[in-house]
Design goal:
By secondary structure, the protein is an alpha/beta fold. It has two domains: 117 residues; 106 residues, Rossmann fold (3-Layer(aba) Sandwich). It has 13 helices and eight strands. Strands 2-1-3-4 form a four-stranded parallel sheet, with helices on both faces. Strands 6-5-7-8 form a four-stranded parallel sheet, with helices on both faces. Strand 7, helix 12 and strand 8 form a beta-alpha-beta unit. The longest helix has 18 residues.
Length: 240
């Protein structure tokens, strides 16, 4: 394997471009030719979750037309990777041709940490990050993609890092895309629990593999006056 496609996702490209750049550096450090997916900017998940199937379908079409089976597509987001691998089957059920393209591409789509550990068979990447870190696993990454241990394995191999236990780490942060907008009281209560766990952990940095979680938790901690940084997993793995 010599080439991969990197799909940055709209949330990361707009708000966390450093995470996409870091993912590209990590992949490039493994002697892979990294080509970014430029002709598609969104997987369509937000529209799909809000019932806007026509709009989501058009975004899915753009993504599928920008990729081809046979070349791994690496996604630094468990949420967007799950949309492509799992929920495209539902979204595109009425379009046989597009559904077939999605099915052909499905085995070639990987979440970032899943690709590193499961495909490239790496754990140590030469990273150094001298911070106390709490790791928050995104819901889609764990529940839909089945990726549980990979991020922690990668973090545990980072030089200088001190991993802190995050209480009830498996619980949702309350983001859920439009969920946090439609149900702000519930989302806020879930966020408060998550922030309390981060405070108890003693970490100075919160790490996640999903930018939506980083935005939700980071915003909450900022409003609470907490001096805890947020980092995407790729940024930690690219640190030197």
């Amino acid at each position: 394997m010599t080439e991969v496609r990197l799909f940055g996702t709209c949330l990361a490209e707009e708000f966390y471009p450093s995470a996409v750049d870091a993912a590209a550096r990590v992949l490039g450090g493994l002697k892979l030719k990294v080509r970014r997916v430029r002709r598609a900017f969104c997987c369509g998940q937000a529209a799909f979750n809000d019932g806007m199937r026509e709009e989501a379908g058009e975004l899915a079409r753009r993504f599928l037309n920008a990729c081809e089976p046979g070349v791994p597509v690496v996604v630094p987001s468990g949420s967007c990777a799950a949309m492509i691998k799992i929920f495209y089957a539902d979204l595109l059920a009425g379009d046989a041709k597009l559904a077939a393209r999605a099915a052909a591409l499905r085995p070639w789509v990987y979440e970032f940490s899943q690709f590193l550990v499961g495909v490239m068979k790496v754990r140590y990447l030469g990273a150094r990050f001298e911070h106390a870190v709490a790791y928050h696993p995104g819901c889609h990454l764990v529940r839909e993609m089945g990726v549980r241990d990979e991020p922690r394995l990668l973090l545990s191999a980072v030089s200088g890092i001190r991993l802190c236990e995050l209480r009830n780490s498996h619980e949702c942060c309350g983001f859920g895309g439009m969920f946090s907008v439609k149900f702000p009281e519930i989302s806020g209560a879930m966020l408060a629990d998550k922030i309390a766990g981060v405070r108890q952990s003693g970490a100075d940095t919160l790490v996640s593999a999903d930018c939506g979680c980083l935005m939700q938790i980071g915003g909450g901690m900022n409003r609470a006056g907490m001096e805890v940084e947020t980092r995407h997993l790729a940024e930690v793995l690219a640190s030197r």
